[in-house]
Amino acid sequence: MTIQGYQFDKIKVTPESDAALYSYLAQNSDNKVINGATATASGLNIYVATGKALVQGRLIEITQQHQLSVQSNTTGYVVLTVDLTQSNTATGIPGTSSYIAVNNQLRLELVELLNQQDLNNGGLIYTFPLYSYASTGSSVALTKLDKSYRITETDWITISKGRYKFFYPRVAIAFDVTGAGESFVQIGILPKEFTPPFDRWLSAATTGTSTADDRHIMIRASDGAVILWSPKSGTRYQSEISFTL
Fold first, then answer.
1. Where are any strands of DSSP class E within the chain?
2. Is the separation of the CB atoms in 127 and 117 below 8 Å?
3. pLDDT tens readout for residues 19-50
4. Residue 111 has what pLDDT?
5. Has this prediction a pTM greater than 0.90?
6. From CA 98, how far away is CA 146, in angstroms rounded?
7. Edge-to-edge strand order for the sheet containing 215-219?
């Protein structure tokens, strides 16, 4: 066949196909720590707590605290490494209690440099950084890489003609704009992590009791632009809208 489907009866679904699907569905939540996976340091040892992460569409769980030893006077990263050059092993009979699989394609380790190939497009290795570190002769300093951790809530953040706030899994946008005869008003730009996967259309209400001059607000998926279309000249649009990521 020249076409293949995977979520169908009796069809074999490979880990690669599953990962590609989950990565697409996760959008901006892929390559993020879901919970936990915080690190502390003592001497030249780093301790990584239990937690979960989604890396290139693959769910990874740290099931118990993990200790890593750092060489003195070095810098690098604490990473979850997905290494598809390795082969997993298994014993026993699949589907029975005797079946035991060993995942050799996953490591929690220290690396000097990151190697981030696209595993869903032919790549083989992806190092997902949790922290960066710098050691002396007797201690190690850790820096949490916030972009690797899922944000659950923010304060209100100002954009050019309004402000936005994230409270998982929704994004709220507040604005107060008076039309001046233009064809559209760009209220601002949302950062990539708070941009919807497809264009969203919402209603911008005018002040007062009439809805005749209400207009559409578009949150554009391609660049995060928040646009008020065709505001009526002299009409005030004071609204708070929200959407689910």
1. 32-36, 39-42, 45-48, 51-55, 58-62, 66-69, 75-83, 89-91, 100-102, 106-111, 125-135, 140-144, 157-159, 162-167, 170-178, 184-189, 200-204, 215-219, 225-229, 236-244
2. no
3. 888 888 877 678 999 889 999 999 999 999 99
4. 97
5. no
6. 41
7. 184-189, 225-229, 215-219, 200-204
